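Quarterly update from the structural biology core.
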Amino acid sequence: MKKPTTIEQPKGKLGVLLPGLGAVATTFIAGVEAVKKGIAKPIGSLTQMGSIRLGKRPENRVPMIKDFVELATLEDIVFGGWDIFEDNVYEAAIKAGVLEKELLNQIKPEIENIQPMKAVFDSQYVKKLHGTYLKEAPTKYDLAQLLVEDIQNFKKVNRLDRLVAIWCASTEVFLNLDPVHASLDLFEKALKENHPAIAPSMIYAYALISAGVPFANGAPNLTLDIPAMIEFAKQQNVPIAGKDFKTGQTLMKTLLAPGFKARMLGVSGWFSTNILGNRDGEVLDDPDSFKTKEVSKLGVLEHILQPNVYPDLYKGMFHKVRINYYPPRGDNKEGWDNIDIFGWLGYPMQIKVDFLCRDSILAAPIVLDLALFMDLSQRCKWRGIQEWLSFYFKTPMCAPELYPEHDLFIQLIKLKNTLRHLKGEELITHLGTEYYD
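Predicted structure, tokenized:
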């Protein structure tokens, strides 16, 4: 066995800060409280339900992940966040309509006391929403300082030992990299000048990193994925991760596409469409916000299938993504895929996938796992991009000289091998045919 990494123990309370207390965040918070009360189980959470194999197969060492690595417990989590509306978490969860009122009433005392802090928001970046519970300040830099004050006060009032933050707010309009994103000095100057290339999510990112809070981005926004933020995170010794939670349709793509490539089956076209009626669907009804999401979704197949490596199978593949706002569906998203594949001698075949999923139900356990794993990263003294958490994202962040890994199965191997490495255990490569050597 190798020497394990020194891990600071998860003593005391962990604050989980959530920009955006909408459907995803309230489903996450209510779910954790329900699990703590024994009302339900944390289905979908790798940290709570998953195991990890250690050593050779005959050893039969398969502990639960939460027993293998030093993670914060659910009982130690304290929730907070910001929102553009004043509703407490109980009221927001009722309006979101994801969880049944009967369930919410059983945890009402725990969640109705969670009040949002005023948000940093600008409808230029999310055109379909118009918030009423907003911070005001002369510059974007001043807004960031107000967020830092919120963070410090939240930690002090709740007597917290550590903090993490997970972005659960809306998708912003598409932004290209701008010269002001190139360095921390240029970024800070742009904050003070109210530069339009600085979106609200970037203000949160700057404030959280300033305060030393690990931050994971659950939306496809540029947010952390700029040189200035990566530089700042390293400078402040803060872990960052992102971007865009891998939930419904993209989850299916990262399950199916690796299988096609493994069997050397060709793909000539992949058409994807969604109908979604929650706040996310409304936001994505704006073409500028949809473009941000589209770019996130389109990159998945390109990286998994590698058309430049396998031109006979994937060169010229047609890939189209559509998202349609359909209010009657609420949070129960439907993702429909038509996949045109071909096999031996080029003979064509088709696959149809109709995934009737619940968007926030799939996202909530991701938020929990990221909160616990980002806290673990901080206690390991890791900083900057946490690529080992790519498993949870549609567009995983990675070092500039690398390409992102999208294959769900490779991502899971990377995540579990990181945990094995952390604890000084042998990495699992699945090599070798001898049980005993």
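The domain at 14-245+361-422 is CATH 3.40.50.720 (Rossmann fold).
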